[in-house]
Structures are given as C-alpha cells and as structure tokens.
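Quick note —
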Amino acid sequence: MANIITKKQVGLLQTAKTKLGLSEEDYRSLLYKYGVDSTKELTQPAFKHLLKTFQRLGFEMQDRSTAAQLRHIAKMQADMGISDAGLGSLCQKTVGKSNPETPGECSKVIEALKAIKRRRELTADG
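Predicted structure written out below.
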C-alpha cells in the first residue's frame, strides 16, 4: 500500500477538479477508469497519468511553494487591512510587477509586508 498517493497529491487533484469545473459525476467516472472509487485509493502511476490528463484539459499547476506563499501574502494583506490596489502597488515597487509569480518574488513581497508590519507596530508603540 506504500504506492498510494499522499494527502498533498489528493488535494492537488481536488484543486484541479475544481479549477476545471468537473462535476462530481465526471470526476468519479475518471477515477473509475483507474479502478478506484476514491481519490485516496489512487496509486502513484495512476496519479501521474490523471494529472497529465487534467493538464491536457487546461489545468495549470503553480509551483507548490508559490501557491503557499500566495496564500500567506493574502492572509497578511487581510490581517493588515491592505487594499488590493495597495498590494499591487507594493508588488510593483518590490518585484516590478503587480503580482509575484515565482517563489523568489513571493519571498520579496512577504519580506516587504513584514517590514511594513514592523514599522506599523513601532509607530503604534512610539
């Protein structure tokens, strides 16, 4: 059973299903082609094949670290009360574009947000 896919891989397939707009029925029929009733039962080779199928259907994978970093940026933005326009402006100043696309760009934006947060805390304390 060591050949079964990981929880992260299950999540990736669920994300692909959602982004492609597949109905539950269509998704289940794809799983059935691999001889399973549940995503959690897929083997590694079946996972790779199904992921390639989703990519042919138009699913584009982001670098996993970038996706996690983008979620972190969004959380920091919300926690700090920064508008979308404000974040776009910060990204433009920090990485030269309105949205970070690579792990390195995301890291720079996160560090810039941390610096803003520190300045705000110092201003509030002082």
